[in-house]
Amino acid sequence: MRIRVVWSWAARWGGLSFALAIGGCVGGFVPPARPGVEAPRASVERPRHHLVRDEAAQDIRGATGQIVGSVPLPAQPAFVPAAATSAAASGVLAGPPIASLPITAVQAEAARAAFARSCPGLMRRTDQSGLTRGADWQGACAAAGAGGDARAFFAQWFEAVQVGDGKAFATGYYEPEIRGSLDRRSGYEVPIYGRPTDLIDVDLAQFSDDLKGKKVRGRVSGTTLVPYYDRTQIEEGAIARTAPVLAWAADPVEVFFLQIQGSGRVRLPDGAILRIGYDTQNGRSYTGIGSLMRQRNLLAPGQASMQGIVAWLRANPDQGRALMRENKSFVFFRELDGPPQGAMGYAVTGQVSVAADPKFVPLGAPIFLSADRADATGLWVAQDTGGAIKGANRFDTFWGAGPMAATVAGGMSARGTAFLLVPIGTLARLGASQGAAGATPTP
C-alpha cells in the first residue's frame, strides 16, 4: 500500500460500530514551547496548496444509512489447511456463473471503470495470491475500454471462484472531513504534519537476505540510528523544526481519527477543501484505543460506537489525551491534487473500491460480495490494502466522503460469501475443480 492510504474505523477499532462523522470541539493538544525547541511554524517549506470544491458522488448501491438485510449465497464446504498463507494454499472452488449473480448495471459499469484503471498495475505486479499471472489479465484489460454492456463484459471475461471456505467479513472506511485553516489562528492550532526531513526509511534487505521484506524507520542521533519520536514527543514539539505543517486543525480528536483513516479533507474557513493523504508513519506500532477503553470499562453499555468514544474523549480531555498517546504511531500526510489513492497508486472510488489482503486477492481484481447487508452486496474492485485487513475473504469497503459515507462506513459490519473474479481459464490452469482444495498454480 504505501503502507496504506486509507484505514478503516471498524478494522482499526476491533470491530466496534461507528455511525457518525466527528463534530464539536475540545481543547487543542498544541505542542508547547520548550527550551531550545521552537513552537511549530506554518511550514518548514511552505507547501503549494491544491484546493478543490465539493463534487457530487454517484449513489451506486442505494445507500441510505439504514441497514437493509439480505440473504447471502451459500458457500461450498471446503477444507482449508490451517497453515495456508495465500489463496493458492487455501484452495479454490468453482463459483456460480457470473451471469447468475445479482450485479446491477450501475455497479457493473462503475466496477469496469475501476478495473480498467487498475489494469496497468494488475498486469505488472507479481500476484502474491499465487492464482494469476500478469499475462492472464491481458484479454480482459484490453476489452475493458471497449464499451458495451458492462454486465456482459464480466460474464464474458471472468469466472468466479471461492477462496478457501468463502466466508467473508466486511467493514467500511471513508474519507473524513475535518475543520482547518492554512494559517495558525485562534481556534485552529493543531498542526497536521507532512513528512519530517529527519525521518529515515531503512530497507533491511540491503543488509541481509534473511531480512527481505522488512523495513524500519528512525532518525540519526550522533552516529546511531534510533527509533523515531513517538506521538507524545511529537505533540510536545519534537519535530517543530523538521516537519512542514500542511494545515492547522480545529480539533485534536479529529486529527487523531484522520490519522486512523489515513486520508481526508480539510474544510477551510472559506469553504474550500484541502485534500491530504497518507505519506508515511513514524515507525512505531499501532495501538487501538477502542480496545483499551473496553478493557478498562471506560465505555458504558451502548457507548461502543464512534460517537460514544468521541464523546468520552471530549468529556475527559486530560484522560483522553493520555489515552490517545498510548497509540505511539503517528501518521504524516502529503497534499493531494485529486481523489485519495489506494495501495496500487490509483484513485479509489466510493462504493466501488475495497481493501483486501494481496496474499489472497490479486490487487486490481473484481470481487462479488454476497452479504447479509444489501448495501455491501454486489461487485467491488480490490484497489487497496490495510494493516488490519488480513486473511482470506476479509474486506474493507470504501464509501467515499460526506455524512452518508461516514454513517454507512462507520456502521459497516457485514458477513456472507465472497467470490473472486479471475480470468476465464484460471481454474483449469490451476488444476482445480469444484470440490477440490489446496490448488497449486502451475508455472
TrEMBL record:
This protein's UniProt keywords: Cell wall biogenesis/degradation, Lyase
InterPro entries assigned to the protein according to its UniProt record, in alphabetical order: 3D_dom, MltA, MltA_B, RlpA-like_sf
GO molecular function, one term: hydrolase activity, hydrolyzing O-glycosyl compounds
Domain of life: Bacteria
Reactions it catalyzes: Exolytic cleavage of the (1->4)-beta-glycosidic linkage between N-acetylmuramic acid (MurNAc) and N-acetylglucosamine (GlcNAc) residues in peptidoglycan, from either the reducing or the non-reducing ends of the peptidoglycan chains, with concomitant formation of a 1,6-anhydrobond in the MurNAc residue
Record-annotated Lytic transglycosylase MltA domain positions: 177-334
GO cellular component terms listed in the entry, alphabetical order: outer membrane
GO biological process entries: cell wall organization; peptidoglycan catabolic process; peptidoglycan turnover
EC number: 4.2.2.n1
Protein name as catalogued: peptidoglycan lytic exotransglycosylase
Organism encoding this protein: Sphingomonas metalli
Taxonomic lineage of the native organism: Bacteria, Pseudomonadati, Pseudomonadota, Alphaproteobacteria, Sphingomonadales
